[in-house]
Every structure is written in C-alpha cells, then in structure tokens.
Design the sequence.
C-alpha cells in the first residue's frame, strides 16, 4: 500500500514537503488570491501526490504576458519602468492572474515575434509596456482579438485599452506653473517618437498659448545622454535668444541638463531662469537646487493595467477605454512660487 493510502495527511504535511508555511497551504487550498503561480502549482502538486482531497475551485484566470521595451528598462528610464513592473506584479498576484515578463526591442515587436512569445508561456492576454504597436502588430492584435493593455502608452485610434499619466493635462499643468510665476517665453525640451510625448508637447503649447506667450519646442535626438544633449541644446537656444526665462522638460533627466546649462551661464535659478521637470525621478531630488517637477505614480499605473486586463477578460466586447492618472506637482527650488517682477 502507498504512503498516501495508509496515512491521512494534513496541511502541515503538505507545508513541510513544499517548504512553505501552513497558512500559505491553507490559502492555496481555499483558492485565495495573492499567491504566486509557481508556489500555487507546487502546493497543488504535493497535495495531489499525498492524496490530499482537493476541492474543485474556480477556473484559473488566463495567463498574461508583459512585453517591456528593452531600450526603456536598460537605459536611463529603467527606474521609471521598475515602478510599473512592481505594480503589475503585485496586482497580478493579488488577483491570482498568472503573469510573465519578457523584454523585447520595440523595433522587433512584430506579429510573429509577439505571437511566439505569447505561445511560449501560454499567455492569452498581453501588456505592452512602453511600446506603441506598429501598423502590422496593431492589425494582428485587432484580427486575433487579443486582450491587450497599453501601459504608459495610448492608441490614437483607441482600438486598445491603455493607461498612462495624464500627459496632455500634466504638461499643461506643469507649464501653467511657469506662466503663473510670470514667465511668458518658455522652452520645451523633448524627444521621442511616442504618442505619450507628443501629448506633452500639445499640453505645453496649449498652456503657453493660453497666456499669449512665446513657446519654442526643442527636439533632442537622444543619440547619447539625455542630460548632455539637453545641456548643449539649452546653451545654443539661449545664445540665439537670451530672452527665454524658463523651461518645461519632458522628464527630469532632461531638466538636469537644462539646470547645469543655465548655471554655467551664470543665471540665477529660479530668479533668472525657472525649470519644471516631469516624472519625479530620483535625480530630481539629487539636483541642487531640487527640481520642481510632476510626480507620476508608476506603481499605480501597473496596478491599474492589471485591473483593466481583468475587466477585458470578463467583458471582451466592451469598447476600448483609456485611463489617465493625474500627476502631482512637486515643489522644488527651480521654480519660484511667487510672481516674477
């Protein structure tokens, strides 16, 4: 006779063999969320081997795959995407949604590669993190009816669900902080092909136009270091027209380069030249003076995306929707809260 038929095993026996706590075993057997899929499967395997009676539980949610732009997580924006991934992981665990991550170059995110990656992990839902799907991939996603969430991205045609910071309104609010301080000639240093960044440009231009000011958009190539490029571009712009008195920057890395440039020119910050960044990355707090910026809750973006995927699985025919999270002004020494004289 087998060991399983001669002894009545308890949850403590399963816990001992699986190397987990009894409470974890209890939660798995009760089909509670918040346990990683690997641990869940291990406990169920041990329980089955021991002949422990298992109750029929709810159907396991479909597995999902997050494809993350490799240039984002391996470059200067790695800290930004780290927060998003944290939110994705924690919320997927809380909702019991099996979840995998793969890095992919945005240029190589073709229908064939994406399909193969999804099949390799058995995923039915897809998170595109920092990736704007190209024409071919978009068509395949629509035709295959793949549940997809754009994370830190949006689709101009609203074919797919998406969640992002409020890029237009966030940029408008950031620029308005400068106009409220009396600035009327404002630079915007930006770069990137992404729709989210184009929305920030629109918000900047709208805010300056609302006060009849002069706006200049400077597009950086991002071929080397964002701060270094912003430093050089700022020096050139102020040499051409020294009457600009402020800059709104697409992110805090760019803002650091602007701060270094105006300091090098002998301008007093913020009295002679004011700066507002975006994202509230660690470098904003390290700068001297601290950068005024706009805080993006990256973890909340990831959590929101998982909730949207859960809804999409349950309501596949619902219209696509885009959720924009508000960004929060962060005070810093690069912006005078009072009016300019």
Sequence:
């Amino acid at each position: 006779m087998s060991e399983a038929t001669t002894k009545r095993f308890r949850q403590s026996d399963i816990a001992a063999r699986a190397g987990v706590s009894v409470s974890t075993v209890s939660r798995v057997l009760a089909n509670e969320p918040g346990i990683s899929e690997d641990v869940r499967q291990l406990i169920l395997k041990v329980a089955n081997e021991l002949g422990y009676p298992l109750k029929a539980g709810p159907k396991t949610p479909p597995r999902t795959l997050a494809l993350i732009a490799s240039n984002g997580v391996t470059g200067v924006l790695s800290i930004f995407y780290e927060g998003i991934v944290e939110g994705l992981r924690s919320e997927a665990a809380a909702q019991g949604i099996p979840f995998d991550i793969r890095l992919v170059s945005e240029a190589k995110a073709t229908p064939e590669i994406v399909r193969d990656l999804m099949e390799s992990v058995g995923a039915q839902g897809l998170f595109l993190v920092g990736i704007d799907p190209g024409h071919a991939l978009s068509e395949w996603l629509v035709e295959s009816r793949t549940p997809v969430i754009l994370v830190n991205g949006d689709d101009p045609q609203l074919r797919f669900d998406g969640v992002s910071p409020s890029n237009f309104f966030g940029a408008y609010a950031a620029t308005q902080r400068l106009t409220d301080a009396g600035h009327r000639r404002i630079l915007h240093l930006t770069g990137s092909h992404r729709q989210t960044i184009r929305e920030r440009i629109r918000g900047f231009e709208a805010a300056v136009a609302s006060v009849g000011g002069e706006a200049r958009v400077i597009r950086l190539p991002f071929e080397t270091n964002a701060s270094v490029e912003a430093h050089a571009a700022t020096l050139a712009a102020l040499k051409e027209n020294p009457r600009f008195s402020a800059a709104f920057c697409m992110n805090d890395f760019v803002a650091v380069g602007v701060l270094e440039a105006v300091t090098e020119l002998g301008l007093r910050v913020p009295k002679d030249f004011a700066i507002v960044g975006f994202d509230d990355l660690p470098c904003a707090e390290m700068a001297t003076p601290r950068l005024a910026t706009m805080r993006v809750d990256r973890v909340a973006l990831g959590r929101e995306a998982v909730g949207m995927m859960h809804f999409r699985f349950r309501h596949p025919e619902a219209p696509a929707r885009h959720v924009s999270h508000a960004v929060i002004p962060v005070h810093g020494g690069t912006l005078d809260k009072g009016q300019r004289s």
In short: The mean pLDDT is 91. The CA atoms of residues 182 and 279 lie 23 Å apart. The first strand starts at residue 64 and ends at 69.
